[in-house]
Amino acid sequence: MYVAVKGGERAIENAHAWLAEERRGDTDIAELSVAQIREQLSLAVNRVMAEGSLYDPDLAALAIKQARGDLIEAIFLIRAYRTTLPRFGASEPVDTGKMTCDRRISATFKDLPGGQVLGPTFDYTHRLLDFKLAADGEVPQAPTRSGITAEDVPHVSEFLNREGLIEGAPHDDTPPPDLTREPLEMPADRALRLQALTRADEGFTLGLAYSTQRGYARNHAFVGELRIGAVPVEMEIPELGFAIEVGEVTVTECETVNQFKGSKTEPPQFTRGYGLVFGQTERKAISMALVDRALRWEELGEDFVGAPAQDAEFVLYHADNIQATGFLEHIKLPHYVDFQSELELVRKLRREAETGHVQEAAE
């Protein structure tokens, strides 16, 4: 047994060395720096921060480099590192009404105070390969940008709220459970569901959101507003007795406006779906808002039609890519004893079956 362990240890060390060599690649080509990844692969960095539940672009870029570009592995690294960090306190809820917007669009209202701000987006590109990038060509200089201040960009839902045409935003000061410290338990209220969705796998969330659009949840949504920008983070200092700004984070916020015919207790009105994610991650934020709305069927008095996106237990227990990866990939680890027992069982069943056939033939 000791020899087997030592042999396995040497093999693992060699595998690690080989991995490091593969990670580095051709040494004749300059090595990628963490700063280059942070600045030029920013959308990948944003996803790692969002699903890793840690806002730190440098650490996310380092994780991407270490993981050879495998974003789920990078998310795993960030979550593992996060568990080692001390917690000094909790910040105040961020006020997205104070966002300095780099991008802000609405699919429901054309003319908005402050205007629609297209911002940096792939939406209007032709999706043609740009071979200038392969030739290390310089890109055109973007116009000087200035963030749109919050005074210019009220939330679109406020326009509908003035006429009572959309459900009121909930007000609950109860601190939600911390999903990074406590295991997910069902039933989960909306605060906990949103917490799980914001760090859920983007592809899984996107697939569920797409299913709602195709009719699996009766969920017809409009993007009331999508905004991306920096919001201040404030923290109350006990010695001072008031909150002070300790920094800022870039987030993507999406609020959908959904049809609702009313119920026994609620009049016909529009309802809301909500998504808020670290960084510029608008595909994820929109998907999150669609799934959030689908999961609200019970509290709104709607019928459960059996759609996957309506099933909170199915959604929340399968959305976390780190849990899914761990359970999926563990089957490639040694299962020699388990397999040998099943192998013997199959052999025994085959012998019994063959014996039975012989007896039948003799009769």
From TrEMBL:
Class of this enzyme: transferase
Keyword line: Transferase
Entry protein name: Alpha-D-ribose 1-methylphosphonate 5-triphosphate synthase subunit PhnI
Entry's EC annotation: 2.7.8.37
Organism: Thalassobacter stenotrophicus
GO biological process, one term: organic phosphonate metabolic process
InterPro entries xrefs: PhnI
A GO term for molecular function: alpha-D-ribose 1-methylphosphonate 5-triphosphate synthase activity
Highest taxon in the source lineage: Bacteria
